[in-house]
Amino acid sequence: MAGKIRARDIEEVKARTNIADLVGEYVQLKPAGVGSLKGLCPFHDEKSPSFTVRPSDGFYKCFGCGEGGDAIKFVQQLEKLTFTEAIEKLAGRISFQLTYEEGGGQQVDHGLRNRILAANLAAAEFYQQQLPKPESEVGRDFLKGRGFDRAAAEHFGIGFAPKAWSELYNHLKSTGFTDDELLAAALVTKGDRGFYDKFRGRLIWPIRDAANAVIGFGARKLFDDDNGPKYLNSSDTLVYHKSQVLYGIDLAKKEISKQQQVVVVEGYTDVMACHLAGITTAVATCGTAFGDDHIRLLNRMLTSDTKPAEVIFTFDPDAAGQKAAMRAYNDSGKFNAQTFVAVGPDGLDPCDLRSARGDEAVVEMISKRRPIYEFALKQKIAPFDLSSVEGRVAAARAAAPVISSIRDAAMRPAYIRELAGWVGLEVGEIAGLVEVSAKQSRSDAVNSLRRDQQLVPPPIDEGAEPSAYPAVNLRDPIQMFERQVLEVLIQVPESFTREQAARIVLSGFSAPTHIAIGAAIESSLDHFGTARFLPEVMGALPDELHGVLLEVAGKELPAIDQDGLIRYGRGVISKATASVLMREKNELLAALRRTDADLEPQTYAELQRQLVAIEKERREATLS
């Protein structure tokens, strides 16, 4: 039976753990006032930092999702650990020896997760010890053939898995690990002939997390009689989830935060080539496509206010590489950064390029990155014959959705001009196609939701209670304007800021239906400006209001082009903001009238101060 950690030790671990250093291993933190640090919350998606750490108090708090606590709770929540496992992880981080009660004084690790990490570390050391041996020459030759010497292998911790059946298993068993622990770590497999090593006769890369713990391995085939895949990765375990892991993040995390740049390559040797060439922000996925979990991991490090962050993808020029590039384009709006594509000369990846032409060529490849929108546009027009009018129009029509999907409205005119030049059409013609695409995209989103919801009129029940959401009277000027505001909030995110939206939906509506939709918008602002926004709003609404939301989302707005649409949206938002400010002013005036200046002088003075601030803001909004 596992012993209980001594209470005195728990307090000692908490006292010795600097919560700012701990959180800083996962989140880029910046000064935010006296004694506070701020960054992007690791527990929910957000664009503006609302996650605060106070090192002197030893606590963190997110004012977006409400999560908060001490260092122990942070590790528990982020890594899905039990209380005991979190204490053990923090103790290991500061090299503190825990004492366990009720267990005869034994000082051992009781958490399976910690045992898996210990087994992984022991396996990594075993593999590294094998690489210099004579029977590992094939592995050394592989590295040498790609321009990696012994120092490079040691820097990245590369090792070799013996070809024998169970050398790692026997070694780890002799050091005290159990069969169950080695199976849980996915280091061995059990067959009819007993236990045998998962990796045999392969070059081994240890995969580490941001805190530098070995969580898994990648293994490259070396022998012709190996019938397995070229690259074999660890199976998912308690500590390793390949959809959430980036190889090289342990080496790159500080430079990513410092340079506000990350280079996403396709393999382990590409990461090595980039780092050795001086591109120390390179990472790669581990046998899986680049996905949302990877984006969330990087976004926590890309939070600079002083320089635009960059995510640079490198892809092979083959069909698979082009497909991956278009997936990256589809995800580009999810980054807190500008996205780019870098393609090597003659289609060489970073590893082959470094081997053939040296470090400088890799640096030059990354420096010649191109915006991902430009890359996507050229991919769209590539299949068409641009020597004919029909081909040019078809190419422009195929590329228009790329431009209409650009969230930064200021960038669209520039890409419209670029596309017009590439296909030989007038700027106005391209702008018209982009506008058609934008309208079609909005219509498709609404129709998709209609199909998903399969909306049908509810059956009439004459004995039912009255609805909490009576029909909106759109002949009433106030309710009609509220509907216009909702239409803009849903359809034209380019015309307002997230802060404006939050202020309007919190106090800008009177009709119960509009209040409910406003509340759903407020709860979905983490997805503001993305394709997920409308579905998230619908998910936050009562079923009976889904039809109203679809009417709002599908309403044709009075504008003939995208610029006109944005101008219309800004006008509506400006009027709505002024209305909110006037309402807030009237509420403060009413509160001031109810307050006795002699009996409550401090309250009276504060209300006056707020009134002055509101009036100043209202006048500035009116002038703008």
What does this structure look like?
The structure is a single chain. The protein is of the alpha+beta class and 624 residues long. The protein folds into 5 domains: 4-101, DNA Primase, Chain A, CATH 3.90.580; 112-240, Alpha-Beta Complex (DNA primase DNAg catalytic core, N-terminal domain), CATH 3.90.980.10; 246-377, 3-Layer(aba) Sandwich (Dna Topoisomerase Vi A Subunit, Chain: A, domain 2), CATH 3.40.1360.10; 383-449; 477-619. The protein has 26 helices and 19 strands. The strands form 5 sheets. Strands 14-16-15-17-18-19 form a 6-stranded mixed β-sheet, with helices on both faces. A hairpin with a 5-residue loop joins strand 2 and strand 3 (37-39). Helix 3 packs across helix 4, helix 19 (427-453) packs antiparallel against helix 24 and helix 20 (477-491) packs parallel to helix 22 (512-523). It is globular, with a radius of gyration of 29 Å.
Keywords:
624 residues; alpha+beta; DNA Primase, Chain A; DNA primase DNAg catalytic core, N-terminal domain; Dna Topoisomerase Vi A Subunit, Chain: A, domain 2; 5 domains; five-stranded antiparallel β-sheet; 26 helices; 19 strands
Task: Give me the count of strands.
Answer: 19
Number of helices: 26
Major β-sheet strand ordering: 14-16-15-17-18-19
- What is Rg? 29 Å
Largest sheet features: 6 strands, mixed
Helical amount among residues, as a percent range? 40-55%
Secondary-structure class:
alpha+beta
Q: What fraction of the residues are assigned to beta strands by DSSP?
A: 5-15%
Low-confidence stretches: 104-110
How would you describe the shape? globular
In whole angstroms, how far apart are the ends?
70 Å
The total number of structural domains is 5
Mean pLDDT: 85
